[in-house]
Amino acid sequence: MSRRRFDCRSLSGLLTTTPQTPMKMENFNNFYTLTSKELGRGKFAVVRQCISKSTGQEYAAKFLKKRRRGQDCRAEILHEIAVLELAGACPRVISLHEVYDNASDIILVLEYAAGGEIFNLCLPELSEVVSEKDIIRLIKQILEGVCYLHQNNIVHLDLKPQNILLSSVYPLGDIKIVDFGMSRKIGNACELREIMGTPEYLAPEILNYEPITTATDMWNVGVIAYMLLTHTSPFVGEDNQETFLNISQVNVDYSEETFASVSQLAADFIQSLLVKNPEQRPTAESCLSHSWLQQWDLGSLLHPEDASSSPPTLDHTVRASEDKTCKPSCNGTCGTQEDKENIPEDHGTVIPKRFRFDDSLANPHELVPDLLC
């Protein structure tokens, strides 16, 4: 199938259009009260809950440093704003409310997603929280968001459970895709080959330094579906080298034990996406027509007696240890894993090995050559 590739006419795939959202120069603190709740933190940004003084509405304030590693990264931030504006009509993407510009930061005032990350639903101890029917709804919503982005020539390039939030926890709300710091515009002009992303979520073509297309996002949708359904991470190894080998060989555990409570249609859906050749992965639009996602009565797929059970309340404070995103130096890719719109924090949780996301590439060019096969 045809895949659109990066357009090099814009800086490294960055949107160069002037954002329509006014860049307010007033003091942010005159209009919003920052609460004590920190939602996310990285080397160059922090996200905090804030409350509008005029309406009392909750928002997430994302403070982005304009200079990173001594370089001006304003263009990267403006790109992120432009992408959020472009996707403003899509209910599956976090919405941008206002933008403030001060001496050192640009502040994005974003929709507040009270349900936290869907990563929390992937943890083994929470395996009974959601049914496969719930997961079908979440995956369909993720695909709707990804389809909208792809139709508008945007690839996210960092889709993972930590970058997909929920509007509420119980009842289980709707998804919101966040963190567009790594997103890029695609077109037919030329190709862009970059090593960027969180190690265990990297698609094979990124490791192999091959052209990036919309299919890269689809690999990540497959990883997300696997994690939600099996409560394990498909490719993470004891270290980055083992992780990269697992990815390059598409070493995935489809054993009967791992998929004991997963329907065959769900397994087929995952297997269609976790294939090494990007051209063989279905598009977001075609995925929405997959038989698994058309199944709403799962009683015939799993155990009829379990199909009507209500999920218990989810403790939304459960959180994985901080994961870091590896990216090249600032050249249209200044953003790092700080680009979290809403992350509930709890560093007391002990995470199993299959859920350690704390490794990152110190240097993206340190990949072992014999892994790139």
Automatic annotation (TrEMBL):
Domain Protein kinase span(s) in chain numbering: 33-293
One Pfam short name: Pkinase
Lineage: Eukaryota, Metazoa, Chordata, Craniata, Vertebrata
Originating organism: Erinaceus europaeus (Western European hedgehog)
Example of a GO MF term: kinase activity
Domain of life per record: Eukaryota
Protein name per UniProt: Serine/threonine-protein kinase 17B isoform X1
Classification via SMART domains: S_TKc
Alphabetic keyword roster: ATP-binding, Kinase, Nucleotide-binding, Serine/threonine-protein kinase, Transferase
Family: Belongs to the protein kinase superfamily.
Signal peptide segment: none
SUPFAM superfamilies to which the protein is assigned, alphabetical: Protein kinase-like (PK-like) (SSF56112)
Region (Disordered): 304-324
Residue numbers binding ATP: K62
Keyword Nucleotide-binding carried by entry: yes
